[in-house]
């Protein structure tokens, strides 16, 4: 049949085309080829799809349980148009979807599971190149991690942010306004009726959170790393230009297969330096730190917390978006989006880093428009702050590091000495938070243990503990909080996160007791527990004889996760997933 004829580019006489979908699936002349083609024909494809053209896997994290990704089926149709247009053969397939707002106990517990799904689906199927359709927080890094371990040509298309939230004539930001409204209700400044009414105004279109939370941040990271077409990150989910750029992405991935332009060509150390600097300029999420470390681990790029701290220093904070600032993603797009930011900080970037366009980041950015609104995207000469990105702290309380998002913190608390009030679980804290007799004042340092990758398990976003009610009623809006947890990219406050090693594996965080003095000095990058070493040694001995309770994880994914997850400073990947094995599969499908 014509279906089995080799493509014009085939070196068929002496072997294959070099195209895996053809050589190992659709171009085979034997029983296996019959099977591979025949069952595909059941979908009504014509003969040409088997002629050796690039097969593009459209890896879709669509799910109605991930509302942020609910429109990705439609976006996939636009990608397919582009793939057909460029002479490719698109095949869409589902992978695990992770929704921040529904999934218990935390979507982060499953990021690595998604990455495994993506990795095995890409490797095991007749796919020459991949488009990753992502949106909600974990879907972007999880998909990239999996694709990086296979290393076929890969292009990311994020789903885009929701339209700005609106409530009583004001713009309200996803997540950020929830934290604020909740605090206002606790302080008696907002009625329960208004609180309920704000729900529908906040989420009024398809798309991911429209603050500079983790989803928007990771969309920007995908673009800054060079994995997403220039100008893609900020386009609202419902803007027709989102669909147009998805079609372009479909065209471009076919060319990328012809050029054999792979993640390992793009995800260099320079690309990570660009991403970290872009994250400082946009005031992006602390979660990007963990995700970038994990992605770097997959491609074998040496990346440490110290690199990230050093790269972020001196980068001007330019983008005035919530939760650190004022505006939202719609405003960011209209102001020029990420290309305008990259253009501003170009002298700080590795401009030669190659991207999915086949050109360097410098070339991509040179051809874009300048900032349209300098209130939303500041000029380098008029920044919102300098070196206000995520700082890495070290000290006897966090020997392997901790992070703090400076732009989201209170200036006056960046150097602070206070007495610890310790909670061994978030549930314990939640029971105490409303207690009028809680022994706490505005200078107290709230400490939360056992909320790290192994301890929870899954490292939930609980690090921005609600201000205790009695203080909220007095008007206290921020306090120093320290934990081995993460916090939502939409959250804010003087919140020290990702303390490593975590309490559950015996990190010094486990040894803190109520009443201990803690010193935070962000300019000096230190986090110090003011307790003598001798005393800490005594506490450690006692801790070892009575380790903290953890969630049962005696079977299934949780067991695999708890036994193999790495600490926050290493990216919380599973230890055996670090690295890549490429796309080859020695055996036939049987
Ligand atoms: Fe999905 Fe925020 S909940 S992006
Ligand atoms: Mg989240």
- In terms of structural class, how would the helical and strand content be classed? alpha/beta
Poorly predicted tracts of residues: 1-14
Q: Please summarize the sheet with the most strands.
A: 8 strands, mixed
Strand coverage percent: 5-15%
- The overall pLDDT, averaged over residues, is 94
Radius of gyration equals 25 Å
Please give the share of residues in helix: 25-40%
Write down the oligomeric state: single chain
Question: How many beta-strand runs?
Answer: 16
Which ions, cofactors or small ligands are bound in this entry? FE2/S2 (inorganic) cluster, magnesium ion
Spatial order of the strands forming the largest sheet: 9-10-14-13-12-11-15-16
Morphology call: globular
Distinct helical segment count: 20
In whole angstroms, how far apart are the ends?
23 Å
Write a compact overview of the structure shown.
This protein has helices spanning 20-26, 31-41, 72-85, 111-124, 139-150, 176-186, 192-202, 214-225, 240-259, 263-266, 269-282, 287-299, 305-312, 329-335, 337-344, 361-366, 426-432, 469-473, 533-545, 556-564; strands at residues 55-60, 89-94, 129-134, 154-158, 165-167, 170-172, 316-317, 385-386, 390-395, 398-405, 415-423, 445-448, 481-483, 495-500, 517-521, 526-529. With 590 residues, it is an alpha/beta fold. Residues 100, 137, 214, 461, 488 line the site of magnesium ion.
């Amino acid at each position: 049949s014509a279906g089995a004829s080799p493509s014009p580019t085939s070196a068929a006489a002496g072997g294959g085309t070099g195209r895996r979908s053809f050589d190992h699936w659709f171009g085979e002349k034997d029983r296996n080829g019959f099977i591979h083609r025949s069952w595909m024909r059941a979908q009504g494809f014509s003969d040409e799809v088997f002629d050796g053209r690039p097969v593009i896997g459209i890896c879709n994290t669509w799910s109605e349980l991930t509302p942020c990704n609910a429109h990705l089926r439609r976006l996939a149709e636009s990608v397919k148009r582009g793939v057909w247009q460029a002479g490719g053969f698109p095949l869409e397939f589902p992978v695990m979807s992770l929704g921040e707002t529904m999934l218990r106990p935390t979507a982060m517990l499953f990021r690595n599971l998604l990455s495994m799904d993506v990795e095995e689906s890409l490797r095991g199927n007749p796919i020459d190149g991949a488009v990753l359709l992502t949106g909600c927080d974990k879907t972007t890094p999880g998909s990239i991690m999996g694709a990086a371990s296979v290393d076929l040509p890969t292009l990311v298309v994020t789903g885009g942010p929701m339209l700005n939230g609106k409530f009583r004539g004001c713009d309200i930001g996803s997540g950020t306004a929830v934290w604020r409204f909740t605090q206002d209700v606790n302080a008696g400044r907002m009625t329960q009726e208004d609180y309920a009414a704000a729900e529908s105004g906040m989420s009024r279109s398809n798309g991911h959170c429209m603050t500079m939370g983790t989803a928007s941040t990771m969309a920007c990271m995908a673009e800054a790393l060079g994995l997403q077409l220039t100008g893609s990150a900020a386009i609202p989910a419902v803007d027709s230009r989102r669909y147009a750029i998805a079609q372009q992405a479909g065209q471009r991935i076919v060319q990328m297969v012809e050029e054999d332009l792979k993640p390992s060509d793009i995800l260099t150390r320079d690309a990570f330096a660009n991403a970290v600097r872009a994250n400082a300029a946009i005031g992006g999420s602390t979660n990007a730190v963990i995700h970038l470390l994990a992605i770097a681990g997959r491609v074998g790029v040496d990346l440490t917390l110290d690199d990230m701290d050093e790269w972020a220093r001196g980068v001007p904070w330019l983008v005035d978006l919530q939760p650190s600032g004022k505006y939202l993603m719609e405003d960011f797009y209209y102001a020029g989006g990420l290309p305008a930011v990259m253009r501003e900080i170009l002298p700080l970037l590795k401009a030669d880093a190659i991207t999915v366009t086949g050109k360097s980041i410098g070339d991509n950015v040179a051809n874009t428009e300048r900032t349209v609104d300098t209130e939303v995207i500041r000029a380098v000469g008029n920044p919102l702050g300098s070196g206000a990105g995520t700082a890495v702290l070290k000290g006897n309380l966090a020997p392997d590091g901790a992070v703090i998002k400076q732009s989201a913190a209170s200036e006056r608390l960046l150097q602070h000495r206070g007495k610890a009030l310790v909670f061994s679980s978030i549930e314990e804290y939640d029971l105490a938070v409303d207690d009028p007799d809680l022994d706490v004042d505005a200078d107290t340092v709230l400490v939360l243990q056992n909320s790290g990758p192994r301890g929870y398990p899954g490292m939930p976003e609980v690090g921005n503990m609600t201000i205790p009610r009695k203080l909220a009623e007095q008007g206290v809006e921020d306090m120093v909080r320290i934990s081995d947890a993460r916090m939502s990219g939409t959250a804010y406050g003087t919140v020290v996160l990702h303390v490593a090693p975590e309490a559950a594996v015996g990190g010094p965080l486990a040894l803190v007791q109520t009443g201990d003095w803690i010193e935070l000095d962000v300019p000096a990058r230190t986090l110090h527990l003011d307790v003598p070493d001798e005393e800490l040694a005594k506490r450690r001995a006692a801790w070892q004889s009575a380790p903290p309770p953890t969630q049962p994880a005696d079977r299934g994914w949780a067991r695999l996760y708890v036994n193999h997850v790495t600490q926050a400073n290493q990216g919380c990947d599973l230890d055996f997933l670090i690295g890549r094995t490429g796309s080859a599969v020695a055996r036939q499908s049987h």
